[in-house]
Amino acid sequence: MSVIVRFAPSPTGYLHIGGARTAIFNYLYARHHKGKFYLRIEDTDIERSEKQYEDEILESMQWLGMDYDGDPVYQSKRTDLYKSYIKKLLESGHAYFCNCSKEELDAERERAMAEKRKAVYSKKCRNNPVNEGVIRFKIPESGATKFVDTILGEISINHEEIEDFVIARADGSPTYNFTVVVDDADMGITTVIRGDDHVNNTPKQILIYQALGLMPPTFAHVPMILGSDKKKLSKRHGATAVTQYRKAGYLPEALFNYLVRLGWSHGDQEIFTKEELVKAFDTGSIGSSAAVLNVEKLNWLNAHYIKSMDPKDMTERLISEGLVPDEFKNRIKDADVQRLLPMVQERSKFLGDAYKGLEFFLKDKIEYDPKAYEKYITPEIKPVLSELKGELEKLSSLDDLKAVEAIFTALIEKHNINLKNIAQATRVLITGTDISPGIFEIITMMDKKKVLERLSV
RNA sequence: GUCCCCAUAGUCUAGUGGUUAGGACAUGGCCCUCUCAAGGCUAAGACACGGGUUCGAGUCCCGUUGGGGACGCCA
Known about the structure:
The protein is mainly α. It is built from 20 helices and 12 strands.
C-alpha cells in the first residue's frame, strides 16, 4: 500500500519552526516511500483564519524546498461533507445536542479541578435530551482506547478521561477533532505525523473513525521543540517563525538540515543533502523525547552551507534575498568579485555577512573602522605605506601574487618591521577594517587604481 | 489538580544485555597564520535516583524524582 501523508496547518499565524519540522517529517516520509504529500488548510475557524497567514505558510514551505502533491484542500469549502457525516452520527446515536451554557460548563470545570478530578463534561444533555445547541460526540461509558504510536509506542487512555467533546458549534460548523477524521479518511491518509500535543486527541479521533465505520490511519506523534528553559518554544525564546530565520540570513538548506536532525538521527551523520535525507529518513527513528533548540548549532550548520555553496548560486541568492543594492547587481557578477566571494563565504555565518564582506571591494569610497585605523595606521608605518604604494605602482599589473609578496618582503627587511604590522595597516587602508580575507590575495584581485588610491595616506 | 508522554555531558544525539559509553554544537589548549574565519590535533564533560530480573544492565521490569504536553463552541 502506498503511503499518503498530509501537513495541515491552520492559517491563524505564521509557520512556526515546530510546524515546519512536522511538515518536513511528513514530506521526507512521503518522498522516502514514494507516496503522496498533501497540504490541507484547516480554516474552520473563520474568525481567526487569514489569507495573509496562508500565503506566508505556503511561501515558507516553498522556501524550505517542500513541494506538495495536488492542490491544497480547504476545510472551509467542505462544510457539506462534514454536515453529512454529522447527520450520520446523530442518526446512529453516536452524537447528541447540548444546550448547556458557557457559564454552566465553566463552573463544572472549576468544580472538577477543585475536587481533583479530570475536567470532563457532566453529560447532562446526554441523559436529558434537547434538540438544539452544539453537537457532542458520545464517548463510551467504560473501557479504554489503545493505539500503537510509531514513535511513542503503545498508548492507552481510559474513556472516563475523555469528555463528550463538541463536534459542531451552535451555528452548525464542525470543529477540529471531527474535521480531521473526515478529511484524513476522505483523503486516504495512511499515516498521521503531527505534534506531540495531539496525543490526547487521538483516542477521540479513533472513536469517531469507529463510529463512522472507517479505518483509522497509523499515528506518529513527534515530540515538541523546547526553548532553552525547556518550556514549549515560544516567541519569548527568540525567533519562532520560519520567515524570521530567512530574514536573519539563514539558508533554507541549513534550517531544513537542522530541524530534521533535531529529534531524528542517522548514526553519526550531521550534514545531509535533501537526497540523502529522502533516502535515509523514516518515522521509526524519530526520537521520543522533546528537544531543546540550539541556535549555536544551527549557526554552525548555516556557516557550513554558506561556505560550501557555489559562488554563482551564492550570488543569485544574495540578489534574490534583496541584499545587493541595485547599483551592484551586475557588478557583483564580474569575475574579480566572483574570485573574492568564496573567501568571504568562508568567513560568513549569515547571508548578510557574505554581502558585507564584499562591500569594500564594490564601493568606491570606504569608511574606516576608527579603532582599527588608530591601532594600525601609526606614524611609523605611514612612510612604509607610501613606499609600498610606490612599489606597487611600478608593477604593470597587480595580479601576480608572487610579485606582490616580494614587495612586502623587501619592505619588511628594509625597515626591519613585522609582516603583521604592514599587513594589518594595508588591510585597514584597503578594506576599512582589520578583518578580511588575505590581504595579498585581495590586492591581486583588486583594480590597481583603487589599490593605489586607498594606499594614499 | 487529573490524565498522557519523556529521561545518555550545557545542547542535539549513537547505543537495542557484555563498548576504554561513540559523534556533533558550544567551551579550554595546541598547530596553522598577515587579521578574522576555516581546517587539523587535543582536553574537560553524561547513562537522574532507588529497587528488582540476570553471571552481567545505559539497555528489560517496578517505583521515586524531575521535565513536558493535554484538559475550549482553537487547531
